[in-house]
Design goal:
It is built from 12 helices and 6 strands. The chain has 289 residues and is of the alpha+beta class. The protein folds into 3 domains: 52 residues, no CATH class; 142 residues, Alpha-Beta Plaits (2-Layer Sandwich); 63 residues, no CATH class. Bound molecules: iron/sulfur cluster (2 copies).
Length: 289
Amino acid sequence: MLLTLRHFVESYVDDVRYGFKKFSPAVNNFEARQGTQATGVFTVQYPDEKLAVPERFRFVPFLVVEDYDHPERPGKDWCTSCGICAKVCPPQCIWIVRNEDPATGRPIPEPEAFFIDIDICMNCGFCAEFCPFDAIKMDHDYELASFDRTTNHIFDKPKLSKEMRYWKTIAPTRVVEEMKVRGSWEHKDAAKAARRGGATRDAAREAATAPAPKAEVEAKEAKREEVRARKAAAEAPAAAPAPAPKVEAAPAAASGGAKPWEESHDDREKRKQAALARKAARASKRDEQ
Ligand code: SF4
Ligand code: SF4
């Protein structure tokens, strides 16, 4: 009883310490109140306040994808659809459909579809532990309750996919440990290709499906002709200046404002397309030189 009474009194002492603004949103003292120095009765005003979860906290998994404004591989899946996570998952709540090349029918190392039934998932973290590509991680988002079990709780690929920068934010220590083991901030494949100075599996696939060398040369020559014609038109005094190629700028979310992982799927897709357009513009500039 004495201990309870002490906590009760200390709560008021704490109130005085914060000038009776303990729960005011204007005073950001939440971490101090939840720290080891705080005294009194602890009441978290959920959902207005939420306890910070430790870095190793784990809830349902998510899939790591490249940042949507990555200069080379925007939005690219880190998952290679190897299926190891689905195999080790104790309650078997992961389903993966491997992508395949429509022309050759050969498998492509990326998932076409990826589902996790989050009601069956027991948050054991085996999938993240066993993934050889650091492509699946345990999330910190635990507010997943909804009234519709049938569709809302079967997470598909767009819902599961989150940018690498999100993982860096929620697990800053682990991300560095993983990077050291991997030897690079990049995906294993991309890092290996960079070390060899060769092509990634994607680039190799693109090269395999590229047009025959003769057609490629003709296409490049036609492009050069087009550029020369555009330059000539721009230099002609009477001619109207050729419009500059329009490259869509990345939305504000990429540089500030809303956090990138809080964007809607459409906004992320826009950022990805803008990054791809920038990449294509860089490639075409290289071709012109
Ligand atoms: S998440 Fe990892 S373990 Fe699972 S299929 Fe993708 S690469 Fe394999
Ligand atoms: S956390 Fe465990 S139960 Fe959930 S998907 Fe991963 S392996 Fe399966």
